[in-house]
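HUMAN:
Just now I want nothing more than another pair of eyes on a protein record. I would be glad if you read both lines and explained how they fit together. I have put the entry right below:
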Amino acid sequence: MIFALVILMLLINWGFHLYSDENKDNCEGIQLAIRNVGSNEVCYSSSEGNLSLHFILENKGAADINGIVIWIFGEKGTVLKEISDISVRKDSLYDARVDLVDYDLASYGALNEVQFIPKKNSLCPKEAAKTASIGVC
């Protein structure tokens, strides 16, 4: 019980920091959109407790993006995955298949939503792109 409360407080603190205005200038020119993969914005496959996501992101902004944090919301919990070794130039696409070794559908439940938080010099949570549709690949 105490462990759960500590984790909850850490998430609340982290969320508050994400949505503060201190990163406003660093995020100028960022505009991220999600393109469809087939009939969904994100598709996934699962094998032996691991999840693989396929998505296409479009940088519609005037600035380059140099990282993405993927925030996955399941029925029973959430998982964060940072991809820091990418560069999505302005007016370009990022077509990715990402393996999430730490996401188990049995533990976290079915996917309800996926958010893509762009990174310029720091995270830009106000510019996050949120999925409207998720399906099986």
